[in-house]
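Let's do one together. I've listed all components of the complex below, 871 residues spread over two lines.
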Amino acid sequence: MIGRGSHMPNMVTPGSWIKPFPQGIYVEPGDFWIDPSAPVDRALVTHGHADHARSGHKAVMATSGTLAIMAVRYGEAGVTQVADYGTQQRVGDVDVRFVPAGHVLGSAQIVLEHQGERVVVSGDYKRRPDPTCAPFEPVPCDIFVTEATFGLPVFRHPDTVDEIAKALATLADNPDRCVLIGAYALGKAQRVIMELRAAGHDAPIYLHGAMQKLCDLYREFGCDLGDLRPVTAQNKADLRGAIILCPPSALNDRWARALPDPVTAMASGWMRIRQRARQRNVELPLILSDHADWDELTQTIRQVDPGEVWITHGREDALLRWCALHQRRARALDLVGREDEDD
Amino acid sequence: MRRFSDLIDRLVYTRSRNAKVKLIADYLRATPDPDRGWALASLTGQLDLAAVKPALVKALIEERVDPELFRMSRNYVGDLAETCSLLWPEPPGRPTPVVVPPLGEVVETLKALPRGQGAATMTTLMDRLDVPGRYALIKLATGALRIGISARLAKTAFAQAFDVDVEEVEEIWHGLVPPYLPLFQWGEGHIERPRYDDIPVFRPFMLAHPLEDGAVDLTDYAAEWKWDGIRVQIARAGGETRLFSRTGDDITNSFPEVAEAMPIDAVLDGELLVRGTAQGNSAASFNALQQRLGRKAVSGAMLRDFPAFVRLYDVLYDGAQDLRGQPWTERRERLEAMMARLPGERFDLSGLIVAGDFAQLAALREGARDASIEGLMLKRRDSLYSAGRKVGLWYKWKRDPLVVDCVMMYAQRGSGKRSSFYSDYTFGCWSEDGTLLPVGKAYSGFTDAELKMLDGFVRNNTVAKFGPVREVTKSLVLEVAFDSVHRSKRHKSGVAMRFPRISRIRTDKPAEEADTLETLAKLITDPV
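Okay, and this is what the predicted structure of the assembly comes out as:
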């Protein structure tokens, strides 16, 4: 086991073979990039969200789930190489292993080992159960590269079951309206559908056109999403008492105008903040995130117990502060193109 | 407490006014005394709990969370109550189900504590409550809800809950103190409406309809100027004086010199104005009055530079005698007779306009150039003083609006029903160097069909996006109507319009032919 404080005679600085650049993380001894924001010769991709998986790379290594998502979104890619969870592969001078991150279908942490040092690039991750993907596996390491999307102590996601119950109670209370849930088209939408099914809602769920392809893909990977139907110009006005899913951008847009008096809901970790919900005219905030909340971020750091924490994107200041308060070495990486997606 | 926090939570996420009224009405019907009364006090801004101040809440959270992490969180969230409700650590080993005291008990406990001594009580409560509960508690205890509920809306909800007239609620409101037990007893039909003759209370205003078209017969209607200040009611009873705005808000503290000068018990209706030296010590424009509005404390300089007075329109009470059931002519006579008893420095009479016929009146209205005149009022001579707007009794006949042709520059999405439309428009006029400078913002005046057209224009002509705002190509001319225009240091263009609205969409006019800033500035009537 390579752990904290292991002796590294050849290393002046821990992780000096990992080069963070604004456009991504470059791993020198393997000559590859992780989640680069611009086209490169060889990219290792943690998961399929657009701010991590870009098109145009010459060669891509990722899990079969992530490669399938990229194919749906970008069409045929260059050379692809499947990385199975847990299987170690050698890329240049680096041993590489993909481990589940629990974020969305196919999402992975990338475990890198080189000259006795282990670095985990976690990508985006969460710790609570998600019926659409494999759960996060903590891997002890020397350097843990973490996100900090919800890196403020105000972010504590409540129980998923309660949030789903809120949506179903609202639906039952408003038989003359529909419940329109804004949800990120990749991952969040399918998770919401699965959770609704698990809570016993087996009526048809209606989808905005932008959701269809990815739902079909999730089905191919074994997710039983039940009866899904498209929202069409013909049926739009007749959807009283139904749950409808759309991308967050469509919630307040022209597309939603003809729906029968929708209760505007949004499934996102940002819904924890009232003002965020009000800004988007959300009546029914569903606090449901595919990212780790504050407690999960700090718990994960304790658990993998790295010698250093590198923070990629989000509210890095607060997580840096927490690391300082807990005598942990930490630094913020200045990556570009990582957005506060509508998650 | 749970019911109250549930109400606050739902109000926060509700946009439509009617839905808010319904939520509050349902709560007031379903909740027992005194909880509902304390809730109504909180919603109307009448609850003052000296034991808890924002500084105390901040101190409590900083004992529990690293101050630096608190600061970052507060900056991000932007609201103290919300930040603390989210950060408060859940106490270990909390019993389930948690017993939360009812709202009345919470308020009465906090009320009994001396100023600033609420820490222990707040801690116990915060430990027991969930996130929405903590949020509601802090909002309640620090006295500033700021959730978009006006006192008027809460009173309207009461009226709806108990099927009474909201103006009747206004009539007795200022005589009541929380938790308003007599109010609810009356609402539920157990007692007659309470009377408050010995304290100054707000009486609902009589309002006017706009005179749309046609004329009125001047033998039936009296005409007077409509002054451009703020409508006020000055009420004195039992030796105490209060000044109320049109919405019934108590604005006595903003105009102490007027309240102090009221020498007799009476209730009077008039226009609050300030004197301007440029007007020969007569009424200055609304722009000058604005210096005095919304100030809690009034400085000596303010009192000296912008002295306020009331130009009287009507009398509602003379002493304890209610004159509202008398016709306007009678009340006018009483008012004229009262003037001798009022100090001229603070009170004068809005004079009647003598015109031979309606055409002559229209000519007088056209000729009025005084900046403090907004238009004309026409009052039926036999009209009783009745609350609200009753058809055919009083008319307001504003001066024709001024218009300029402007160019649309930016658009922003509306809210509520208009949330999918770009319905708020910023427009500009041409400056000397040929650039467009924004001169105002309007979100009314157009029909639904025109809104669709404008929305389509914005979507098809966007050149940049800034969050919810879109910048558009400078190509669409909007004819903008407004009541007046004033100098403004706050705007780069140096001008500010009063009540701008879109009067026409000039697709026929090229943008280069829109008006210049110079043209607009010529319409300013303020003295330099």
